[in-house]
Every structure is written in structure tokens, then in C-alpha cells.
């Protein structure tokens, strides 16, 4: 099997951190805050490694766009079983303004360069929740896409993917090459074992800039303001359903 | 005019100065730069591999351990076999152990990295139990044991299939290790063991014990041996669990050994060397004990900041009171000092130095600082701090042990004094 898979992994603020809006109200505080790999990307890496273990895929390449610290994210991917990494250097200031469109262009270029036949990314990043990168990457490459995957099976030269959609589960067939985005229930990522962490030390991480791939990272939109959601107000308890209906009418909800 | 001349002179001299300075600095820039990165790396202490180890272990703790700690504390026991198997599978029980027995053969800095992350477990009992397995019951075995004992006891302890405990302390001998009374008398191809052991962590769940016993007559430092004793051997009786004020999920017991028969092959290393072997691993044990307090102390300070930021009294957050934020700053300072001492001691140990003095200082400071931090923080939590519903009161109870177990503060002080040359000579034993 000569299938190469490219997996995108993003370095985001750790899910357990209590985020705070910056004083300039243009973003959230990131300095000194704990960061880790986007949980959905962990699931993507895990799936790629499992495909390799099943001999469906030959090589897993982990890609991350970001400042120097993005290498930590790639290293985690290597420790989980990815074969090598690519770090697309984007300075911290630019990172704030990096959009899914830029990342999609980068991933598309890399997929072509590496001759990968499968691109897997997490369905969305937990910082911007855009849920756009997989879709746009497929669009740019003109490849089929299977988003919100909760199960992936290879059958001959296509993939059978079960997707989690609003109405339930949808099973589709996509011909390779394809782009897949990982949803929560696709798998449970492994702990990088210590022997693998040590082995990862020898794995290569290639460095490059977006310009090297011919991608322009000029932002297309500008963030005007970032504010906290309104503080949650206290609710009230009512005696029975009739009172509930009365109250709802009073506040104009029904 | 004079002013302009003054300005010109100042400008020219400063330009001259800066010219020679820049050439000088260019020459020294290379060495300064490399020394800077070296210094930074040393100060950071952990490399990317260490951090990856910590990340992976933290994930394991967050999903397999922390969600259950409250329950285990209530039940008075944590499932050692279950937890150790998970840790063992990920390679965390053999970090510094030999590769031929399933270990990773890494240097002690990785063990310290692991111990620091173990401190993120929301109780003291589980990290302590793991430390017994990795840094107390197995170092001598790994270093001096025969192939047979290493296969029987070390390999399964590294894989997490067997739980170990350390049998050194006795009812009448804790700090005074040389004075233990348990005997292991040679009889044909066996040792017959008689005696009692006290304060044994993991006792109820252990599959084997690393036992220190007197194997001959003679000088107290030369007549003891370390023996691997399977805990299902006939003659081993455990008393009911010791009811402690803290470390609640750790099962601690007193063990009676009555004519316990163990094959001579279970001896670790040479007879008579047991005391020395034990002493050799104390440096690691003490460093581990110290580094495991860093995260709990950090957690106490951080959670106290968050609590006092929300909690209001007399119209403003408690945190606004100088006595509180200044005190927390003091404590944070002290924790940094301890951290620097621990990292330095580890660096020297990894480099091959004897760090008895520094390791003893680390343990001493950790025990005392742990009490200070938890005591001050608990005070700031007020009434809530006094309940069993908050983490700070659990750490108050759990960290209190650090000044006692693994070498009391007083023993640490005596060691430091000995190395300072200030310890008075003990009267000669007749």
C-alpha cells in the first residue's frame, strides 16, 4: 500500500483553561496560557495511525501551521505514531489572523507536493470553531469530502465513511483521493507511550513558510471586537405548567 | 555654543565608545549567545522529550485517575493493579530501569519529570504509591539483583502486572533503620524470616515486598540484606488497615512475618549489603519525594487565588487584601526556590555527582514548605477550607506526611549537619 496521508493538527488553547478577553478587546489572552493539540486533530492523528497499523496507509505526515511552539504539537503527533512532520512557520502575530482559507491552501499545496491521497483534519478547532478547513481543502483540490466522520473503512479504491449529521448517521462512499474531517466518536486517541516518545525524537520535522508554497496569508477580514458573552442571569422556579405559560407570555417569549 | 560643543563631545565619545563596544561585543557575541542558550536550556531543565512525557502522563491522569480520586479517598483504597497496569502499559513504571526488563534506561531527569507530573493527581496517596513502586522498592533490585530476581520481580513491576511494597520500617525502628529486628536465617536453600514491618504502603495490594532483614550477626550496617518476598507466602499476616489522617486512598498496614520461607535465590545482590543498597537509593527517593510536592503546592496557590478573587468580604474580593496577595507571592517565591534546588540537584545527580546534601535539603524544604503553603492557603479559604469538599484541605492532610515519611525532617537535618561537620560524635557502641 503506497497511500500517504496528511494530517493537520492545530495548536490551540487547552480546553480546560478559563479564557479571558484581552484588554484591547481584539482577542483572548494567549501569553503564558497552556496550549495543546486541538482535540479533534488528536482524533484525526489517531485515525491515521490506526490506518497505518492496518496497513491501509503507508506513511502519516503531520502538519501544523504556527509559531515555533507548533513544533510541540507536531512532536505529540510523532509520539502518537506519525512518521514525520511539516512545520509551516507562521509568526504568533500573523497566527491570530490566519484563516481557514489560508490553511486550506497550504494543506492543498502540501497534499500535491507530498502526493498524499488522503487528508484528515479535525472537524473544527476549539478556538475559532469555523469548521471550514476540510471543506475548503477539498474544494481547492477538487477532491471528494467526507466530513464529521465517525467511522472510516477502506473498500477497494474508495472509503466508506459514516457521518454524524443532524438527523442521525449517514453512510457515504468517497473515491480516493479524498479529504476527511474527524468527529468526536471516530476513535479514542491513545496516550503516547514513553518508548514512542523517545522514538519520536529521531523523526524529522521539515520547516517551511507559507510563501514557499506560494500561499499569501493576507487576512481577508478584520476582527473589530471580542467580548465576553453576557453574564447568565438567574432563573426562576414556577409551581406548575400554567404559571410557566403565564410567565413565558409575560416576557414575550410566546 | 558651549552647549553645542558639549553635545558634540558627548556624541563623539559615545560613538567612539559604541564603536569599540560593538566590535568587542561582536567578538564575545558568539560565546555569549551560545552560553545564553545553554543557560536557558539548563534553567528550563526539561527538554521537548521530557515535556512530551509529561503531556502524555497528564492525559492519562486526567482520564484514568483524577475522575476517580474522590471516590477512592472515600473508600480508603485505590485500585493499585488497575492503575499500575495502565501506567505500565504506557511505559511510565520503568523510566530509569534497564531496557532488558522492559524499562527505558533513561536518566534520572525523566524520573523527576514524571514525579512532577504525578503531583497533578488530586491526592497525595496515588503518587506516593507509584513512587514506592518506581523509586523505593525497585532501584536496588534493578541495580544489584540477579537475572532470576529481576525476571521474577522487576520485569512484572515495570509492566504494571505486579504491585510492590517496601518492608524496611518496623514498629520499633523507623528513622533508626540500623536497629531493625526482623531476621532472615539461612536454612538449607531457604531463608526463614521472622519479624514485623510497619507503615507499609501498598501492603494490602502488593504481590511482593522488598524486605530489609538481618541475615547475620555483627555490625548493624553490614549484617542486613534485601530479599524479595512474595506476599502470598504462608506466614505473612497483615493487621487491619492503619487509620491515618491523610493519604486516605493508600492502604497502609503492619505486617507480621512468622517463619516465612523464601528461597535463597530471592536475595538481592550480596548478603550483608542490604543497608548499603538501601542508602544508595535514598538520594533518588528523597528527590522524588521533594519534586512530588511542587505541583500540589502550585495547585493550592493557584486555586486560592481563584477562590479569593471570587469570594467577597466587606465589599471587595478577598484577594485585594494585601495580607493575602502578598503572602501568596511569598509562597510562590519559596516554591520557585525549591524548584531551582531540585532541578540543580537532579542535574548534578545525572552528571554522576553525589547529591546526598542537596537531596536531603530538597526533602527537608519540601516537607516544611508543603506545610506552610497548605496551612496559609487553607486559612484564606476560610470556612470552606475546613471542609472535606475542597482540595486544599486534602493537600493539607496529605502533604503533612512529607516531613515524616521517607526520612523525617530531623534525619535530613542530621545528614546536612554531618556533611557540614557540625554533628556531634555519637557515643561509641560497646
Automatic annotation (TrEMBL), chain A:
Any single Gene Ontology cellular-component annotation: mitochondrial matrix
Superkingdom of the source species: Eukaryota
Localization terms from the record: Mitochondrion matrix
Transmembrane segments: none
Biological process per Gene Ontology, one example term: fatty acid beta-oxidation using acyl-CoA dehydrogenase
InterPro entries associated with the record: ET-Flavoprotein_bsu_CS, ETF_a/b_N, ETF_b, ETF_beta_N, Rossmann-like_a/b/a_fold
Origin species: Cherax quadricarinatus (Australian red claw crayfish)
Protein role: The electron transfer flavoprotein serves as a specific electron acceptor for several dehydrogenases, including five acyl-CoA dehydrogenases, glutaryl-CoA and sarcosine dehydrogenase. It transfers the electrons to the main mitochondrial respiratory chain via ETF-ubiquinone oxidoreductase (ETF dehydrogenase). Heterodimeric electron transfer flavoprotein that accepts electrons from several mitochondrial dehydrogenases, including acyl-CoA dehydrogenases, glutaryl-CoA and sarcosine dehydrogenase. It transfers the electrons to the main mitochondrial respiratory chain via ETF-ubiquinone oxidoreductase. Required for normal mitochondrial fatty acid oxidation and normal amino acid metabolism. ETFB binds an AMP molecule that probably has a purely structural role.
Entry-linked SUPFAM superfamilies: Adenine nucleotide alpha hydrolases-like
Main subcellular location: mitochondrion
Matching SMART domains: ETF (SM00893)
Domain Electron transfer flavoprotein alpha/beta-subunit N-terminal, chain residue ranges per copy: 25-217
Subunit structure: Heterodimer of an alpha and a beta subunit. Heterodimer composed of ETFA and ETFB. Identified in a complex that contains ETFA, ETFB and ETFRF1. Interacts with ACADM.
Family: Belongs to the ETF beta-subunit/FixA family.
Keyword Transport among UniProt keywords: yes
Name of this protein: Electron transfer flavoprotein subunit beta
Keyword field: Electron transport, Mitochondrion, Transport
TrEMBL record, chain B:
Sample GO molecular function, one term: acyl-CoA dehydrogenase activity
Catalytic activity: (2S)-2-methylbutanoyl-CoA + oxidized [electron-transfer flavoprotein] + H(+) = (2E)-2-methylbut-2-enoyl-CoA + reduced [electron-transfer flavoprotein]
Sequence ranges assigned to domain Acyl-CoA oxidase/dehydrogenase middle in this UniProt record: 165-260
InterPro entries (alphabetical): Acyl-CoA_dehydrogenase (IPR050741), Acyl-CoA_DH_CS (IPR006089), Acyl-CoA_Oxase/DH_mid-dom (IPR006091), Acyl-CoA_Oxase/DH_mid-dom_sf (IPR046373), AcylCo_DH-like_C (IPR036250), AcylCo_DH/oxidase_C (IPR009075), AcylCoA_DH/ox_N (IPR013786), AcylCoA_DH/ox_N_sf (IPR037069)
Keyword match Glycoprotein: no
GO biological process: fatty acid beta-oxidation using acyl-CoA dehydrogenase
Domain Acyl-CoA dehydrogenase/oxidase N-terminal: 47-161
Cofactor(s) needed by this chain: FAD
Residues in Acyl-CoA dehydrogenase/oxidase C-terminal domain copies: 272-418
Gene Ontology CC: cytoplasm
Coiled-coil region(s): 36-63
Key words, A-Z: Coiled coil, FAD, Flavoprotein, Oxidoreductase
Family: Belongs to the acyl-CoA dehydrogenase family.
PANTHER family on file: ACYL-COA DEHYDROGENASE 6, MEDIUM-CHAIN SPECIFIC ACYL-COA DEHYDROGENASE, MITOCHONDRIAL-RELATED
Record-given protein name: Acyl-CoA dehydrogenase 6
Organism: Cherax quadricarinatus (Australian red claw crayfish)
